[in-house]
Automatic annotation (TrEMBL), chain A:
Keyword terms, alphabetized: Acetylation, Cytokinin signaling pathway, Cytoplasm, Nucleus, Phosphoprotein, Two-component regulatory system
Domain of life: Eukaryota
Main location: cytoplasm
GO CC field: cytosol; nucleus
Pfam families: Hpt
Gene3D superfamilies for the chain: HPT domain
Phosphohistidine PTM sites in chain numbering: H87
Name of the featured protein: Histidine-containing phosphotransfer protein
Function: Functions as a two-component phosphorelay mediators between cytokinin sensor histidine kinases and response regulators (B-type ARRs). Plays an important role in propagating cytokinin signal transduction.
Cellular compartment(s): Cytoplasm, Cytosol; Nucleus
Domain (HPt) ranges: 39-152
InterPro entries: AHP1-5/YPD1, HPT_dom_sf, Sig_transdc_His_kin_Hpt_dom
Organism per entry: Sphenostylis stenocarpa
Automatic annotation (TrEMBL), chain B:
InterPro entries xref list: CheY-like_superfamily, Sig_transdc_resp-reg_receiver, ST_Response_Regulator
Residues bearing the modification 4-aspartylphosphate: D61
PROSITE patterns given in the database record: RESPONSE_REGULATORY
Any single GO BP term: phosphorelay signal transduction system
Keywords annotated in UniProt: Phosphoprotein
Keyword Phosphoprotein recorded: yes
Keyword 4Fe-4S attributed: no
Domain (Response regulatory): residue spans on this chain: 11-126
Organism: Sphenostylis stenocarpa
Name the UniProt record assigns to this protein: Response regulatory domain-containing protein
PANTHER family membership: TWO-COMPONENT RESPONSE REGULATOR, TWO-COMPONENT RESPONSE REGULATOR 24
Length: 153, 134
């Protein structure tokens, strides 16, 4: 029983840290409130859809901003297409409360509007980094929740 | 309790091409008892009405392939569809929101939709409804 209580405390503390450090915002709370006995996997399902969306979009962004050609001129980059992908990623990240990913997407959209190639390359790096962090954090969160369910029998 | 009782009298159509948004909007609606269906673009929204289906509430995304939310809303209104149509989009510029509203929306909310925004939509549909009850 002590073990379970400890796990629960760890989960509460870990979740609080994700909000405190800005990885998640209130939209994530909203999703948790929509989870109940009839939809026990709702948050995991929604976040999984976000992971799929984000990975597809990050792939598309990389292709559009192909960094294997560092001398690629401004004229050859389709900024409209780039902006469209970033807009989608911004929307998805906002829908699950991935605040830091969402913030980088806002900067990224500004870079697209300015047709700032260097800015876009930097933003792509940042958004990949933030996405990787939040993915790891959320996977850890779900693992902890699963451990609690197993410990509770 | 009052919110859920009113919700069970309402039917809704979710019009959105993104699976993540579809799932969230459907779950939000279900949480207040609203029976709902999903279509993935404006043309499917128009087609489902051409087949005779009617909904009290339509949650309409703006950017969709084949037929976007602005065109779909105009078509539905020209067909005489009097449903509450609420635009739900992540587009920010005033000009775009105004264009969307002018297509025939009753209301507009920025994504993501959440409980508070849904409560406000339901309150518009039924002023007797309050969000104090869960």
């Amino acid at each position: 029983m002590d073990g379970l209580v400890q796990l629960q405390k760890q989960l509460v503390d870990y979740t609080a840290s994700l909000f405190r450090e800005g990885f998640l915002d209130d939209q994530f709370n909203q999703l948790q409130q929509l989870q109940d006995e009839s939809n026990p996997e709702f948050v995991v399902e929604v976040v999984t859809l976000f992971f799929e969306d984000a990975e597809r979009l990050l792939n598309e962004l990389s292709k559009t901003l192909d960094s294997s050609f560092p001398n690629r001129g401004q004229a050859s980059i389709d900024f409209k297409k780039l902006d469209a992908h970033v807009h989608q990623l911004k929307g998805s990240s906002s829908s699950i409360g991935a605040q830091r990913v969402h913030s980088v997407c806002i900067s990224f959209r500004n870079s697209c509007e300015e047709q700032n190639v260097e800015g876009c390359l930097k933003n792509l790096q940042q958004v990949r980094h933030e996405y990787s962090l939040v993915k790891t954090k959320l996977e850890t969160l779900f693992r902890m929740e699963k451990q609690i369910l197993e410990a509770a029998g | 309790m009052a919110r859920r009782n009113f919700g069970t009298q309402v039917t809704a159509l979710v019009v959105d091409d993104n699976a993540l948004n579809q799932k969230i909007h459907q779950r939000l609606l279900e949480s207040v008892g609203v029976r709902n269906e999903v279509v993935t673009n404006g043309k499917e929204a128009v087609d489902i009405h051409c087949h005779g289906k009617r909904f009290d509430l339509i949650l309409m995304d703006m950017d969709m392939p084949i037929m976007n939310g602005i065109q779909a809303t105009k078509e539905l209104r020209s067909m005489g569809i009097g449903s509450m149509i609420v635009g739900v989009s992540s587009r920010c510029p005033e000009t775009e929101i105004r264009k969307f509203m002018e297509s025939g929306l009753n209301d507009y909310h920025e994504k993501p939709l959440n409980t508070a925004k849904l409560n406000s939509i339901l309150h518009k549909m039924n002023p007797n409804f309050t969000s104090n009850n869960k």
